[in-house]
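Work package 3, deliverable 3.1, input record:
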Amino acid sequence: MSSENTLDDEDTFKILISTDIHLGYLEKDAIRGNDSYNTLNEILNCAKINQVDFILLGGDLFHDNKPTRRCLHSCITMLRKYCMGDSPIHFNILSDQTVNFNTTKFPWVNYQDENLNISIPVFSIHGNHDDPTGAEGLCALDLLSASGLVNHFGHSHSVERIEISPILLQKGSTKLALYGLGSIPDERLYRMFVNNQVTMLRPKEDQDEWFNLFAIHQNRSKHGPTNYIPEQFLDDFLDLVVWGHEHECLITPTRNEQQLFYVTQPGSSVATSLSPGRSHQETVRQFFIQDVVLADYEDAFMPETPQVMKKVENLCYAKVAEMLEDAERERLGCPLTPEKPLIRLRVDYSGGFETFNTSRFSQKFVDQVANPKDIIHFLRRREKKEDINWSAQMCHYEV
Amino acid sequence: MSSENTLDDEDTFKILISTDIHLGYLEKDAIRGNDSYNTLNEILNCAKINQVDFILLGGDLFHDNKPTRRCLHSCITMLRKYCMGDSPIHFNILSDQTVNFNTTKFPWVNYQDENLNISIPVFSIHGNHDDPTGAEGLCALDLLSASGLVNHFGHSHSVERIEISPILLQKGSTKLALYGLGSIPDERLYRMFVNNQVTMLRPKEDQDEWFNLFAIHQNRSKHGPTNYIPEQFLDDFLDLVVWGHEHECLITPTRNEQQLFYVTQPGSSVATSLSPGRSHQETVRQFFIQDVVLADYEDAFMPETPQVMKKVENLCYAKVAEMLEDAERERLGCPLTPEKPLIRLRVDYSGGFETFNTSRFSQKFVDQVANPKDIIHFLRRREKKEDINWSAQMCHYEV
Ligand SMILES: [Mn+2]
Ligand SMILES: [Mn+2]
Ligand SMILES: [Mn+2]
Ligand SMILES: [Mn+2]
């Protein structure tokens, strides 16, 4: 990319994640009728300005199962406006696309269609609001995928067993396995998990090189004994789960200590506009996450190096400062972005290293980040062999 | 074009005209549910095989104002399959496209959109079945035009006055002014015609060089004193009127002797499938029409030349034979096409020529054309200055 933004490097996926946009919500309301449309416009504009590699939608793009003509027309218009164009795409797809994209007669990613000039591919699972119906099992999203504007994935056609095949994406040296599962009634999916009817397939080769991201659209909080999906049901090889459907914004990834993956719950972009008489300004909070594997720095230090923890701490300072610089530089292109980004540095200290005092570390950044108490996450990745060169940016609308 | 078909010359518009496809008609019927879909598929396939320059639809593409998801999905899928691709487009548009295409945020013809690779542009007016509704005045066709699959034209946004601006198309030396008017309740349009509230705009320069084609979707037969549009209401500068809405097939152009234009009424492609228990095979009848202006042959004969009528008759024989050869050659590419084409030779005998006996002329072709009694049409074009180099092929489905 020609952006001056240093984050646009050839090994880093830059992803805009959004969910529960609920396009068409309250569209007949005289005052708030345009809110969901303005929000989608803002989201797509943000993706364009930031030159993301792709957009990942976590379901409920449409509020109504059968969106109105205005709603479909607006959506098509905005997607064509923002997601078509000449910017080149810098990643490849290595998986069997006929398995990944199984809801149209065009089972390939839209940007590889020789008749469409796509600048920002959108990948989306469906939610419960816009789920498939009828004998054909089509959902509103499929009108967009038939026109080549969206890549609908994660649609399981079987009620007997669910096999989730990832879209395998590679950008430079970074490998991203994108799993998705469109909304299924919670109690049914719960039962299927319990009966071992849900399988997440993994690439046969180089399994450890893949960053595994899973988009799901289910109840996360317990609405009844089997009326939600416990995080523990999900495979522990996952690295990050993007949880749609829950409208509360818990975007900062929380670690599931048992499964050792992170869960981000972006929340709905439209629920925030529910409070009457508000004068909210939609804004997008940056979120940067990066991994550091201490064992990879053997040239600089080893567990037995004198004052090793000081050296590790300095390395982490430098990494965070770098992310803050990136964030600042990028924020200039996106005027509505709040000043303080969310910053996360995951430090893999396996191989004999120790942890350092994170509260002291955080003091240094208390005025610069939105989550000062929570910057460093220590983890030990049992089978990890290589550095996963990965960072992500997630945009989310907040009041 | 690389076709071996000699009709694909650089000055001839090759147009597939179809109307009243009524996609989704009886789609829930267990037996006939697919008929309207198969028909559209056949029509588009015919357009592709014959490498037409464009498709002109006369309204009622959709049977229901709000087509089902299946219906929209099928339509989008078929249009993307047949109308996108690498075949180059050989005509230009000279008119102001923001005036021609006023129902989307993309007011230009789809094949000129740099993000879409269109092989067959579709131009369509709307019918009464798929007419605009709601505050936004959008019709189902506008979902297709927003996605860039169809060029919706002829939508008048005013109820006060209607100004019909033509799409000015040029292919080689041939100039085609394409007028369209989407369906309007007959009595209202009747009244507007009577009150001089309907204006057909003409290009300021070289008016006589344009072939003027008008697509309309109204009652043609009298359903009540003001519940139809008399042909006499239409401007007499028109050359050909494509009349949609009337489902009866009267595709052979009939001449309105008062206005001196021709009217073709293709009829519905789906009404024919109404008879129960039929085993019909959808077929496409070729239709060729060509103009001869005797005054242009001054090198060969003049009105005072000895035996001039014999020479004129021989010229006409040669022209018809040529069209039959073209038809035969073309038919080989389209296996379902019936053997006998419709042939029309319009002979402009103004400038002192006389007419010859057409029934004797027709004897020669009785086994070769579908309309032997009706091949030659004599006409005198009052203001005509130049030969209009025009021929058309119209496909129509017949039982
Ligand atoms: Mn939702
Ligand atoms: Mn939901
Ligand atoms: Mn009709
Ligand atoms: Mn009609």
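The radius of gyration of chain B is 21 Å.
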